[in-house]
Amino acid sequence: MEAPIDGRSGGRTSIEALRTEALTCLRCPLATSRRNVVFDDGDATADLMILGEAPGEEEDAGGRPFVGRAGRVLDGLLEGINLTRSSVWVANVVMCRPPNNRPPRVRDEIAACSKYLDDQIALVEPRVILALGATATRRLLGRGTLSGRLDTRPKVGQVMVVPTYHPAALNRANGRWGQVREDFEAARTRLAK
């Protein structure tokens, strides 16, 4: 079962303390096959959080989220709204690569990482979260409907969640590019308010 996002950081006072704990996590079976825990990238004080599904092979090898082809797409989308990776917080629903890049399982893998994600959100305190793909959207909103719908989720105050397609899906389906650009622009507009 997914833990609520309620603004509490599990008693941790910093991202560094949370990262240190996460790097040695053995809570689920993914820990036995990973090369690296892929915790985060970017600015821990950012107003915009980018949330993906799980690390892929390149991310597992390098220990950073979105470094492969999907990462290059993400960087281009951020550039399109005048942001850079270093100006946002980038994380995933799970921090270890599922075998063969399959979606993470809810009962053990997502549940095991939930406290880390909730704590990241509480510590970073983003104003907007761009949820990339059905897994990230479902984890935050309890449903997997993508793109074009803005939702709020209580935390300390309100965090706007903008669901959109995962950059990897854009590599396979060109027809979604326009909608994803609109979603990134919607996130940028919310940040300006």
Task: Describe it.
About 3% of the residues have low confidence. The chain has a single domain, classed as Uracil-DNA glycosylase-like domain (Uracil-DNA Glycosylase, subunit E, 3-Layer(aba) Sandwich). The longest helix is centred in the middle third of the chain and has 19 residues. The protein is built from seven helices and six strands. Strands 1-3-2-4-6-5 form a six-stranded mixed beta sheet, with helices on both faces. It is an alpha/beta fold and 193 residues long. Helix content is 39%, strand content 15%. It is globular and about 40 Å long.
List keywords for this structure.
Uracil-DNA Glycosylase, subunit E, 7 helices, single chain, alpha/beta, six-stranded mixed β-sheet, globular, 193 residues
Radius of gyration based on Cα positions? 15 Å
Number of helices: 7
Strand order of the largest sheet: 1-3-2-4-6-5
Name given to the CATH architecture: 3-Layer(aba) Sandwich
Please, what is the CATH homologous superfamily?
Uracil-DNA glycosylase-like domain
SSE order, one letter for each helix or strand: HEEHHEHEHEEHH
Report the CATH C-level class.
Alpha Beta
CATH topology: Uracil-DNA Glycosylase, subunit E
- Strand content bin: 15-25%
Spatial shape = globular
Explain the layout of strands and helices.
Blueprint lengths: L14 H8 L18 E2 L5 E5 L4 H6 L6 H12 L8 E4 L13 H19 L3 E5 L1 H8 L9 E5 L1 E8 L2 H6 L4 H16 L1
Parallel strand pairs: 2-3, 2-4, 4-6
Antiparallel strand pairs: 1-3, 5-6
Short description:
The chain is of the alpha/beta class.
